[in-house]
Amino acid sequence: HVVAQSADTFVFDRYDDNGNLTAESVMRYQGSNTTVLKDTVYAADHSFSVKVYDPATGAVTHQEKHDSGGKLIYSQDDSATAHVQTNYVNGIVSQSATYDASWQQVDVLKYSVAGTLTEHDYLNANGYHVIDRYDPATGKIVTQGVFDAAWKQQSWTTYNTDGSKSVILNHADGSKEIDYYAIDGHAYQIDQFAIDGHKIGSQMMTM
Protein backbone atom coordinates (compact mmCIF):
# COMPACT_ATOMS: atom_id res chain seq x y z
CA HIS A 1 0.00 0.00 0.00
CA VAL A 2 1.45 3.39 -1.06
CA VAL A 3 0.40 6.78 0.32
CA ALA A 4 1.79 10.10 -0.95
CA GLN A 5 2.99 12.44 1.83
CA SER A 6 4.10 15.16 -0.55
CA ALA A 7 5.00 15.59 -4.22
CA ASP A 8 8.20 13.56 -3.83
CA THR A 9 7.72 11.62 -0.57
CA PHE A 10 5.74 8.40 -0.24
CA VAL A 11 4.90 5.90 2.50
CA PHE A 12 5.07 2.20 1.61
CA ASP A 13 3.15 -0.13 3.94
CA ARG A 14 3.65 -3.91 3.82
CA TYR A 15 1.29 -6.50 5.29
CA ASP A 16 1.38 -10.23 5.99
CA ASP A 17 -1.16 -12.73 4.68
CA ASN A 18 -3.46 -11.99 7.61
CA GLY A 19 -3.57 -8.29 6.89
CA ASN A 20 -1.24 -7.29 9.73
CA LEU A 21 1.10 -4.38 9.12
CA THR A 22 4.69 -5.69 9.14
CA ALA A 23 6.76 -2.78 7.83
CA GLU A 24 6.50 0.81 6.76
CA SER A 25 9.04 2.85 4.77
CA VAL A 26 9.11 6.56 4.08
CA MET A 27 10.88 7.17 0.77
CA ARG A 28 11.77 10.16 -1.35
CA TYR A 29 11.85 10.10 -5.15
CA GLN A 30 13.98 12.66 -6.95
CA GLY A 31 14.20 11.89 -10.63
CA SER A 32 15.62 8.38 -10.95
CA ASN A 33 16.96 8.41 -7.35
CA THR A 34 15.14 6.78 -4.46
CA THR A 35 16.13 7.64 -0.88
CA VAL A 36 14.88 5.81 2.19
CA LEU A 37 14.21 8.31 4.97
CA LYS A 38 12.68 6.06 7.63
CA ASP A 39 11.95 2.36 8.20
CA THR A 40 9.58 0.91 10.78
CA VAL A 41 9.36 -2.87 11.36
CA TYR A 42 6.48 -4.39 13.34
CA ALA A 43 6.64 -7.70 15.22
CA ALA A 44 3.81 -10.15 15.81
CA ASP A 45 3.47 -8.96 19.43
CA HIS A 46 2.95 -5.37 18.20
CA SER A 47 6.36 -4.19 19.35
CA PHE A 48 8.23 -2.24 16.69
CA SER A 49 11.57 -0.70 15.80
CA VAL A 50 12.38 2.46 13.87
CA LYS A 51 15.40 3.59 11.85
CA VAL A 52 15.87 7.11 10.52
CA TYR A 53 18.43 7.77 7.79
CA ASP A 54 20.51 10.74 6.70
CA PRO A 55 19.10 11.50 3.23
CA ALA A 56 22.49 12.67 1.99
CA THR A 57 24.57 9.65 3.05
CA GLY A 58 22.07 6.90 3.80
CA ALA A 59 23.64 6.40 7.25
CA VAL A 60 21.38 5.56 10.19
CA THR A 61 21.18 8.62 12.44
CA HIS A 62 18.41 7.59 14.86
CA GLN A 63 16.95 4.30 16.07
CA GLU A 64 14.09 3.41 18.40
CA LYS A 65 12.61 0.28 19.93
CA HIS A 66 9.08 0.23 21.36
CA ASP A 67 7.39 -2.48 23.42
CA SER A 68 4.09 -4.14 22.54
CA GLY A 69 2.23 -1.32 24.24
CA GLY A 70 3.97 1.30 22.14
CA LYS A 71 6.22 2.61 24.92
CA LEU A 72 9.74 3.65 23.98
CA ILE A 73 12.30 1.30 25.57
CA TYR A 74 15.48 2.17 23.67
CA SER A 75 16.84 4.86 21.39
CA GLN A 76 20.17 5.53 19.70
CA ASP A 77 21.48 8.66 18.03
CA ASP A 78 24.54 8.46 15.79
CA SER A 79 26.69 11.15 14.20
CA ALA A 80 30.19 11.40 12.82
CA THR A 81 31.54 12.42 16.23
CA ALA A 82 29.41 10.64 18.84
CA HIS A 83 26.90 7.90 19.64
CA VAL A 84 24.24 8.11 22.35
CA GLN A 85 22.33 5.05 23.58
CA THR A 86 19.35 5.58 25.89
CA ASN A 87 17.24 3.02 27.77
CA TYR A 88 13.76 3.72 29.11
CA VAL A 89 11.49 2.14 31.72
CA ASN A 90 7.81 3.10 31.54
CA GLY A 91 8.72 5.98 29.28
CA ILE A 92 11.31 7.39 31.71
CA VAL A 93 15.04 7.41 30.95
CA SER A 94 16.83 4.77 33.04
CA GLN A 95 20.30 5.06 31.47
CA SER A 96 21.99 7.18 28.82
CA ALA A 97 25.46 6.29 27.54
CA THR A 98 27.61 8.49 25.29
CA TYR A 99 30.45 7.15 23.14
CA ASP A 100 32.98 8.89 20.92
CA ALA A 101 33.31 8.24 17.19
CA SER A 102 35.32 5.04 17.81
CA TRP A 103 32.75 3.73 20.33
CA GLN A 104 34.88 4.43 23.41
CA GLN A 105 32.54 5.15 26.30
CA VAL A 106 32.94 8.67 27.66
CA ASP A 107 29.83 9.27 29.75
CA VAL A 108 27.02 7.29 31.41
CA LEU A 109 24.04 8.67 33.32
CA LYS A 110 21.80 6.36 35.38
CA TYR A 111 18.42 7.25 36.82
CA SER A 112 15.92 5.90 39.34
CA VAL A 113 12.43 4.74 38.36
CA ALA A 114 11.26 8.24 39.31
CA GLY A 115 13.72 9.81 36.89
CA THR A 116 16.19 11.24 39.41
CA LEU A 117 19.93 10.89 38.83
CA THR A 118 21.56 8.01 40.75
CA GLU A 119 24.96 7.63 39.04
CA HIS A 120 27.24 9.49 36.65
CA ASP A 121 30.22 7.67 35.10
CA TYR A 122 32.65 9.71 33.02
CA LEU A 123 36.27 10.39 32.08
CA ASN A 124 38.05 13.29 33.77
CA ALA A 125 40.73 15.55 32.27
CA ASN A 126 43.43 13.00 33.18
CA GLY A 127 41.64 10.21 31.32
CA TYR A 128 40.66 8.53 34.59
CA HIS A 129 37.28 6.89 35.12
CA VAL A 130 35.07 8.68 37.64
CA ILE A 131 31.93 7.22 39.19
CA ASP A 132 29.68 9.64 41.07
CA ARG A 133 26.74 8.17 42.97
CA TYR A 134 23.81 10.24 44.19
CA ASP A 135 21.03 9.97 46.74
CA PRO A 136 17.94 9.80 44.52
CA ALA A 137 15.82 11.39 47.24
CA THR A 138 17.94 14.52 47.66
CA GLY A 139 20.00 14.64 44.47
CA LYS A 140 23.17 15.09 46.53
CA ILE A 141 26.36 13.18 45.76
CA VAL A 142 27.14 10.42 48.29
CA THR A 143 30.30 8.78 46.90
CA GLN A 144 32.90 9.34 44.21
CA GLY A 145 35.34 6.74 42.95
CA VAL A 146 38.30 7.57 40.71
CA PHE A 147 40.01 4.78 38.74
CA ASP A 148 42.92 4.76 36.31
CA ALA A 149 42.72 3.49 32.73
CA ALA A 150 43.16 -0.11 33.97
CA TRP A 151 40.35 0.43 36.53
CA LYS A 152 42.73 0.45 39.51
CA GLN A 153 41.16 2.58 42.23
CA GLN A 154 43.00 5.84 42.86
CA SER A 155 40.64 7.37 45.39
CA TRP A 156 37.25 6.96 47.01
CA THR A 157 35.35 9.85 48.55
CA THR A 158 32.38 9.49 50.89
CA TYR A 159 30.19 12.56 51.40
CA ASN A 160 28.30 12.76 54.69
CA THR A 161 24.89 14.35 55.11
CA ASP A 162 26.31 17.08 57.37
CA GLY A 163 28.68 18.28 54.63
CA SER A 164 31.83 16.61 55.91
CA LYS A 165 33.64 13.97 53.89
CA SER A 166 36.40 11.36 53.95
CA VAL A 167 38.79 10.58 51.12
CA ILE A 168 40.72 7.32 50.67
CA LEU A 169 43.88 7.85 48.61
CA ASN A 170 45.58 4.75 47.25
CA HIS A 171 49.31 5.15 46.62
CA ALA A 172 51.36 3.45 43.90
CA ASP A 173 53.30 1.36 46.45
CA GLY A 174 50.11 -0.19 47.85
CA SER A 175 49.88 1.98 50.95
CA LYS A 176 47.00 4.37 51.48
CA GLU A 177 45.77 7.25 53.55
CA ILE A 178 42.38 8.46 54.64
CA ASP A 179 41.84 12.22 54.81
CA TYR A 180 38.95 13.61 56.83
CA TYR A 181 37.41 16.98 56.00
CA ALA A 182 35.12 19.17 58.07
CA ILE A 183 32.03 20.84 56.68
CA ASP A 184 34.07 23.96 55.86
CA GLY A 185 36.34 21.90 53.58
CA HIS A 186 39.42 21.87 55.81
CA ALA A 187 41.24 18.59 56.46
CA TYR A 188 41.37 17.87 60.20
CA GLN A 189 42.83 14.34 60.30
CA ILE A 190 44.99 12.10 58.11
CA ASP A 191 45.34 8.37 58.85
CA GLN A 192 48.10 6.41 57.12
CA PHE A 193 48.14 2.68 56.37
CA ALA A 194 50.91 0.32 55.26
CA ILE A 195 50.60 -1.99 52.26
CA ASP A 196 49.42 -4.82 54.53
CA GLY A 197 46.55 -2.64 55.72
CA HIS A 198 47.64 -1.89 59.29
CA LYS A 199 47.55 1.67 60.54
CA ILE A 200 51.00 3.24 60.85
CA GLY A 201 50.17 6.83 61.71
CA SER A 202 47.56 9.48 62.36
CA GLN A 203 47.97 13.22 62.10
CA MET A 204 45.60 15.80 63.51
CA MET A 205 45.48 19.01 61.49
CA THR A 206 45.12 22.52 62.88
CA MET A 207 41.80 24.03 61.88
Structural account:
The chain is mainly β. Helices cover 0% and strands 61% of the residues. The chain is built from no helices and 18 strands. The protein has strands at 2-4, 9-15, 21-30, 33-42, 48-53, 60-66, 72-78, 82-89, 92-100, 105-111, 117-123, 129-134, 141-147, 153-159, 165-170, 176-181, 187-193, 199-204. It has an 18-stranded antiparallel beta sheet, with no helix packed on it. The radius of gyration is 26 Å and the shape is elongated. The model has no long low-confidence stretch (mean pLDDT 92).
Structural class: mainly beta
Beta-strand percent range: over 45%
Please work out how many helical segments DSSP would assign: 0
C-alpha-based Rg, rounded: 26 Å
Order of helices and strands: EEEEEEEEEEEEEEEEEE
| Shape estimate | elongated
The major β-sheet equals: 18 strands, antiparallel
Unreliable parts:
none
Q: What is the distance, rounded to the nearest whole angstrom, between the alpha carbons of the first and last residues?
A: 78 Å
Overall mean pLDDT score?
A: 92
Total beta strand runs: 18
Helical percent range? under 10%
What key attributes describe this structure?
elongated, 207 residues, mainly beta, 61% strand, 18-stranded antiparallel beta sheet
Helices and strands in order:
Layout lengths: L1 E3 L4 E7 L5 E10 L2 E10 L5 E6 L6 E7 L5 E7 L3 E8 L2 E9 L4 E7 L5 E7 L5 E6 L6 E7 L5 E7 L5 E6 L5 E6 L5 E7 L5 E6 L3
Antiparallel strand pairs: 1-2, 2-3, 3-4, 4-5, 5-6, 6-7, 7-8, 8-9, 9-10, 10-11, 11-12, 12-13, 13-14, 14-15, 15-16, 16-17, 17-18
